[in-house]
Amino acid sequence: METLGKKYPSGSQLSKDRYQTFLKSLERHRILNADTNETNGAYYGINQFSDLSVEEFTNTYLRSYPPKKLDYYVPNKKGGNSLPSRFDWRDKHLVTEVKNQLECGACWAFSIVGAIESAHAIKGNPLEDLSVQQVIDCSYLDGGCNGGSTDSALKWLYQSHTKLVRSSEYPFKARTGICHYFSPTVYGVSIKGYKAYDFSDYEKEMMNLLISIGPLAVIVDAVSWQDYLGGIIQHHCSSGHSNHAVLVVGYDNSGDIPYWIVKNSWGTSWGVDGYVHVKMGQNLCGIADFVTFPVL
């Protein structure tokens, strides 16, 4: 409680309930860590979510879903091109800082806005924080803090010709609010289109796309991420259970275990300074099932 700034009324039923939930999480950590004898394997333990049950965590933080209508297609497989052993858009200073969605289930909005921020900067513009709250409040195809999809958020941006304003103009409130509209003369970033792919059998092509286009918004199975502290995830999540939107910003293929470098929206105290590493090549966590990116 002291380390993570948790406060419960002393002697209250809430305090007792949270303690019991915490004890259950310790047992869950033990089970998860039983499989971490691999090279650089993921390890699990106490973090800011350890006083939440799996159900509470899922219902609060895992609120993204794949599109109801699958427009996805598999790109033609390309071969023969050599890729760098490591690539990370952060090295080029083209990824904004990790954000914290708090108890607002809008990972889908953070993922898409992060992709647009980087895409805009890759085109030679200044890297700056754009408004996630604008997407939460205004995307009529999504449910604000109650959940949404990367695909429908991009569809809304494209169809409405909305310009994303700076975060300072429309700051994050961690709740769904009334959509604010801005004059056409106000500075903002709009998209010309968007793309969606299924790369589940083509992770090398996904690497190619990451390098040529920029960070990629994906929807993953993140139930086991509740307890993640670091290392490379190689177990405990699968495809077919997509529930959380994140942003793939790079990969590292130089070691024994190749992995994707993934930006999350649970603050910098979670994981590896707010990032998670997911093993490449097996579509782990369904990381390659639903890949979307904006066209600027």
Give a description of the structure.
This protein is an alpha+beta fold. The termini are far apart. The mean pLDDT is 93. Strand 7 (244-252) and strand 8 (259-263) form a beta hairpin. The longest helix is centred in the N-terminal third of the chain and has 21 residues, at 13-33. Strands 2, 3, 4, 6, 7, 8, 9 and 10 form an 8-stranded mixed beta sheet that branches. It is globular, with a radius of gyration of 19 Å. It has one domain: Cathepsin B, Chain A. The protein is built from 6 helices and 10 strands.
Summarize the structure.
The protein contains six helices and ten strands, in the order H-E-H-E-H-H-H-E-H-E-E-E-E-E-E-E. Strands 2, 3, 4, 6, 7, 8, 9 and 10 form an eight-stranded mixed sheet that branches. It has a two-stranded antiparallel ribbon with strand order 1-5.
Give unreliable regions as ranges.
none
What does the overall shape look like?
A: globular
> DSSP helix count?
6
Q: Which CATH class applies here?
A: Alpha Beta
> How many structural units, i.e. domains?
1
CATH fold field value: Cathepsin B, Chain A
Write the layout of secondary structure elements.
Layout: H1 13-33, E1 43-44, H2 54-61, E2 86-88, H3 107-122, H4 132-138, H5 150-160, E3 193-197, H6 203-213, E4 216-220, E5 228-230, E6 232-233, E7 244-252, E8 259-263, E9 275-279, E10 291-295
Parallel strand pairs: 6-9
Antiparallel strand pairs: 1-5, 2-7, 3-10, 4-7, 4-10, 7-8, 8-9
